Amino acid sequence: MDGHAHSIRCSTFFRQTLGILVAVISALALCGPTLAQGKKPNFVVIVADDLGFSDLGSFGGEIRTPNLDRLAKNGMRFTEFYVGSTCSPTRSMLLTGIDNHRVGLGNMYERTAPNQLGLEGYEGVLSTRVPTIAERLKAAGYRTYMAGKWHLGHSPRHIPAARGFDRSFSLLNVAGSHFDLRGANQDSPINEFVEDNAYLRKLPRGYYSSLTFTDKLKSYIDEGRKSGQPFFAYLAFQAPHDPLQVPKRWLWKYKGKYDMGWDDLRRQRLARQKRLGIVSNSAQLAPRLWYIPSYDDLLGAAQVQQSRRMEVYASMVEYLDFQVGELIKYLEKSGQLDNTYILFFSDNGPEGNDPIQQAKQRPALSGSAWYPNNYDTQFASWGRSYSYMAYGAPWAQVSATPFSGYKGSAFEGGIRSPLIVWHKGMKGGRINRGALMHVKDIPATLAGANGRGMQGRSWVPLLTGQSKNPRSDGGIVAGQYFGAQFARSGSYKAVWMPKPFGKDQWQLFDVSKDPGETRDLSGV
Residue ranges of the Sulfatase N-terminal domain (predicted)? Predict the structure, then answer.
């Protein structure tokens, strides 16, 4: 998706509007209420990479996610939570509470356009001009830990240890193997990892991303217990980002589960979402994207291959959930769970691009031979430690049910994430479908009085029952990514998606009633 030319052509209005919004939001930034009631609470923020809105059982999915579903059942679910359409912009806002264009990630470093090179806000690393939530909480007496994908800079002054984390174990790159140092493409063939300030030449024995990240975080928390300080822990899973790979004994957990195909599965997920109360009874599925065929039109061999993609993806999501359960068990056993807030969400929508298919379709393109030369891309190997496979647009639209679009899009499928917030003191089982929320709000919520200068809004009144919506005054959430733009206030969302993925014009939707963005109201 290349929106650079469009971005130059039509972004003046959006920049002016965004400037006004930023000024208003900044004036309303949190400066008072906190979640602390006596003893300072611990905070655990868990982020999945490219997980879809409907993948969890508690959000309508058939994938087994008992640990996250338990958090959802005993905590709160929020269905109108917005993130960036790709990973590093979201991560920059999560760590600062400020719009990604103001903190160096106006675009992903890997996608920086020629006209953006050298411009403030497009440095491709997390700006040192603003403090991170780790730095703010550290100053407030917290121990700070991070394990997982960073994707906000590689140099010594931009790694987690330099941005407020007492202990950290991090993948610095965008993606790559979940078992070894192999990178994601020819531009990033070998991944970089750091532990604290040390750049690693090899990975721990038995390394698998979800396992090792969780184990590292548990060890850091345990090590810090003797300090008596509360902690902030950031667990940034690399899963289920492609390549889709799982430990050997998890390879066949979903064999045959997806033989019905993507069309039937989308309908099944929507029906469950309605029963659960995740979406309104009037919600309709977004139409199948124009370039996705009907599953029933595929030949038998093609169906077998396509269903295998989703089988591996589901195993990867279940394994992530298993590791969340291991973290929860540790916190409970060590007596720290009852004073801990846990937040879970995805950095963006599901990934619909398939680099292997793109390489096959454009063999003359530079880098096309890199994948088969560095990974096994054959069907028989899919899911194994040495393989590379992505699940593609058809299954990404399933993961995004009932929305249109996926990662990289300004339609709901790219920017709306499941959100779970848990604390023992909460009244469990509630689903909030009305609160308009944004990833920038999280630092403002955690920082309390230390959150001055942030653009997000605190969820403290929402989580403590004093309010039902942090933007009940008509406050707006907005974003611009790759030429795609959106702004939402209340139930209504204006969106501009460049062709061929959109109409290259402004559209208006009532996304509270029409989350699939099927009825354009701009001409009404």
Answer: 41-448
Angle between helix 209-224 and helix 300-333 axes, rounded to 10 deg? 10
3-state secondary structure of 482: coil
Q: Residue 176's closest CA among 168, 167, 164, 185? A: 185
Q: How many CA atoms lie within 13 A of 331 on its CB side?
A: 24
Question: Taking a C-beta distance cutoff of 8 angstroms, is the pair 85, 415 a contact?
Answer: yes
DSSP letter string, 349-388 = S-----HHHHHHH-TTSTTTTHHHHHSB-SGGGTBSTTB-
Instruction: Report helix, strand or coil for 86.
Output: coil
List, for residues 132-189, the tens digit of each pLDDT value. 999 999 999 999 999 999 999 999 999 999 999 999 999 999 999 999 999 999 999 9
Which helix (H) or strand (E) segment holds residue 508: the answer is strand 506-510
Catalytic residue check, 87: yes
| 431 contacts 377 by C-beta, under 8 angstroms | no
Three-state DSSP state, 443: helix
Joined together, the tokens standing for residue 355 give: 């680099």
Of 291, 289, 295, whose CA–CA distance to 309 is shortest?
A: 295
Give the span between the Cα atoms of 177 and 239, in whole angstroms: 10
Using pLDDT thresholds of 50, 70 and 90, give the confidence band for residue 418. very high
Nearest to 52 by CA among 465, 359, 350, 421: 350
Strand bridging mode 476-481 / 437-438: unpaired
Residue 413, amino acid: G
Q: Which of 6, 87, 101, 158 is catalytic?
A: 87
Q: Which residue out of 6, 101, 151, 158 is catalytically annotated? A: 151
Residue type, position 131, single letter: P
What pLDDT score does 30 carry?
36
The answer to whether residue 241 is catalytic is no
At residue 23, φ and ψ (nearest 5 deg) are -65, -45
Q: Each residue of 355-374: pLDDT tens digit?
A: 999 888 888 777 789 999 99
Secondary structure (H, E, C), 154-222: CCCCCCHHHHCCCEEEEECCCCCCCCCCEEEECCEEECCEEECCEECCCCCCCCCHHHHHHHHHHHHHH
d(Cα 199, Cα 391) in Å, to the nearest integer?
32
Helices and strands, counts by H and E, the chain: 14, 17
Q: How is 286-355 classified by DSSP, letter by letter?
A: PPPPTTSPPGGGS-HHHHHHHHHHHHHHHHHHHHHHHHHHHHHHHHHHTT-GGGEEEEEEESSS-----H
**Percent helix, percent strand, percent coil in the chain, to nearest 5:** 35, 15, 50
What sign does the CA torsion over 364, 370, 371, 375 have? positive
- Please give the average per-residue pLDDT across 340-348, as a whole number: 99
Q: What is d(CA 41, CA 229) in angstroms, rounded to the nearest whole number?
A: 10
> How far is residue 260 from each of residues 244, 265, 305, 311, 349, measured CA to CA in Å?
21, 7, 13, 12, 23
Strand partners, 376: 387
